[in-house]
Amino acid sequence: MNKAIIEFLPDQSGNKQVLDLLLDLQEKARFDHGYEQLFARIMRGLEFLEQHGVTKDKVVLQFDGVPYTLQLVKELKHHVPLCEFRVNWRGTGAFRAIFIVSEYEGKELLMFARAMVKQERSDAGFELLIHESKQILAEYLQIPENQL
To answer: What are the φ/ψ torsions at residue 138 (nearest 5 degrees)?
Structure first.
């Protein structure tokens, strides 16, 4: 039984940027080995979150029988309650997706707002990603039927 539900939130235009980015990465994975590896790890990580819920501990996932250790979730200390979903692949980049965790019908509800693939350890675009995520989440939660 799954412990979490993943939801990709729309922005004001109705676009689900995180889902759109995942679809773009899936397409790139068809032609590029690095993106194939990154996308596989992202999907495995999301499956792990659905099955086990959010953990801030390092997890070990299997890829072609080889263990891969990573910290899937990091709490953004200066932007609580935002969390960061994290998956890296050498040479391709670091996938980052901003989300919050809430509870819905006894399960964790992971609401993803924005995502990016960054190339640098410190990326100015990441701060913009956090700001946009805060806006999307605030707007989403203002709608009465979305309030938890």
So the answer is: -65, -45
The pTM for the full model equals 0.92
* Helix, coil or strand: residue 97: strand
The strand pairing partners of 5, in sequence order, are 109
Query: Which residues make Cβ contacts (< 8 Å) with residue 25, sequence separation at least 6?
Result: 35, 38, 39, 42, 95, 117
What's the CA gap between 112 and 133, in Å, rounded? 8
Q: What is the pLDDT along the chain (148 residues), one digit of tens a residue?
A: 799 999 999 988 999 999 999 999 999 999 999 999 999 999 999 999 999 999 989 999 988 888 989 899 999 999 989 999 999 998 999 999 999 999 988 999 999 999 999 988 777 789 999 999 999 988 888 877 766 5
Domain ranges of the chain: 4-140
Tell me which DSSP letter residue 2 carries. Answer: -
CA 43 → CA 27, 50, 120, 147, distances in Å? 14, 11, 22, 28
- Cα–Cα distance list, 19 to 25, 26, 102, 113 (Å): 10, 10, 19, 9
